[in-house]
Amino acid sequence: MQICQKSILLQVYIQISIHNIMAELVLMPKMSDTMQEGVIATWLKKVGDTVKAGEPIAEVETDKATMELESYFSGTILHIIAPEKQAIPVNAPIAIIGNPNEDFSHLLADSGIKKSQVQATTTITQTTEVVTATQTISTQKVTIPPNIRPITLPKMSDTMQEGVLVNWLKKVGDTVKEGEPIAEVETDKATMELECYEKGTILYQIEPGTTVPVDGLIAIIGEAGADYKPYLEILKSGKSPVSSNIQNTKRATEPSQPTLTTQTNGSVESRIKISPLAKRLAKELGYDITKIKGTGEGGRIVKRDIENFIAQSQPTPPKEIPSTKVIQSIPLGQESYEEVPVSQMRKTIARRLSESKFSAPHFYLTIDIDMDKAIAAREAMNQASPVKISFNDMIVKATAMALRKNPKVNASWLGDRIRYNHHIHIGVAVAIEEGLLVPVVRFADTKSLSQIAAETKELAKKAKDKKLQPADWEGNTFSISNLGMFGIEEFTAIINPPDACILAVGGIKQVPVVKNGQIVIGNVMKVTLSCDHRVVDGALGAAFLQTLKEFLEEPVKMLV
């Protein structure tokens, strides 16, 4: 996605007249509230090009999205300091703009930059020729031949530190275009397609199943037949941070060895356009995807095509998990175990919740809520609602309205300050096979129960299908974890950063209660609020729970 960046440029250093241009440094701007560095994904202009103020000169990958960077100077690009595909800190110089053939050495000296230190540089000559880019690895300079370009793993979520290359959608020798999907990558959130940001022929690929850090090398692309092996050997020498993740390179560099095709379908299957979810469903059902017609964009096979496909023969059942057979055949009394690699999602859950548990001083508040009127109200509302409303939907709505009345609970600890959010975005924990995701219902206090019900169902479905996008899971200000449907009566939850609180919801249980001086059967639900004591004190947390209790025990209050 490309977004105009005029509103976020940090400053204009001098007023420039078109008739009196002086060389100026272009700095990396802060393009989001959490951005600390950016990666030049692509230079849209080269040395010698003339640009106008406000004209896009580069695409910058931030921690949120890839955006266009607009020039805040008019003139000629004299020097490009920042290389493509390398992280540059905010406010660091990335280029120089001025008059053609103007001496800009003083700018390099003033900013402490020497041409010999520039990791990837181009300089202007009278014929505006571009000098070959170079890349520094440790103390050794590695020259990247002009006819090859490395493809590195981008940061595909706000918490992603590494990814697993699940599948190649293109193989060595294939020609690809910019924006064309080339691989499926398992991140800590979902399995996503990786689009190529270069065009050319794929010369080298890492093996499927390899774990790669963000910015690690996954492929090399360039002119057909280009010699990339000397460059690759230097990366493998141990001086590159990505060298440890390049495995089985001999096999991966053989053009005759496709990395995606199956033995039965040959190269035909590798050219079929199919979404990751559709591919997984087809595999589970034993369908031959070469016989399925895609109805998606460009003939792409999507989930509905798999669901609508009627197999000509009995589908092959999925293969039995080997570990099941082993367990069944183990003699009585023999010890046994199975070890499986930790998924990216599970690694992130472990890291983030460990940081939360051991850095945020948790305390817990539990309250009983009489759900008799909530049960009756839900039955009445579902007779008119276009979508079925669940108890969890009612809890989300009641929580959002309780936060509106207790705004200091809707907060985050930021170290040297506390952020009190004026908007209410509720994160709703969803359990999937690989772990836990927390998609976000935005502005939950302003939405009707039927809107919340429809949105939570859609988000839960996308989570289970691994179709959530960063916009679906970012920005929560408060979280809810509900295990009531699993028969859990009461539990405590670990706070989901950056929130200050999380609400743990148990199941509704019929218990004896006293009403009007008599013991009767009542429907009671226990909820426990986990609080970060740096932000929320006991009295504040108790006040929030009392407000939540009022809304759920008198649901009509949520409608006025």
Your description of this structure?
The protein is α+β, with helices and mostly antiparallel strands and 560 residues long. The chain has three domains: 6-131, RNA polymerase II/Efflux pump adaptor protein, barrel-sandwich hybrid domain (OB fold (Dihydrolipoamide Acetyltransferase, E2P), Beta Barrel); 148-270, Beta Barrel (OB fold (Dihydrolipoamide Acetyltransferase, E2P)); 353-559, Chloramphenicol acetyltransferase-like domain (Chloramphenicol Acetyltransferase, 2-Layer Sandwich). The protein has 13 helices and 29 strands. A six-stranded mixed sheet has the order 20-29-28-27-23-26. Strands 1, 3, 6, 8 and 9 form a five-stranded antiparallel sheet that branches. It has a four-stranded antiparallel sheet with strand order 5-4-2-7, with no helix packed on it. Strand 24 and strand 25 form a beta hairpin. Helix 10 crosses helix 11 and helix 10 (391-405) packs across helix 13. The radius of gyration is 28 Å and the shape is globular. The relative contact order is 0.08. The model is unreliable at 1-21, 114-141, 238-270 and 311-327 (pLDDT under 50).
Notable traits:
single chain; 560 residues; alpha+beta; OB fold (Dihydrolipoamide Acetyltransferase, E2P); Chloramphenicol Acetyltransferase; 3 domains; six-stranded mixed β-sheet; five-stranded antiparallel β-sheet; 13 helices; 22% helix; globular; disordered N terminus
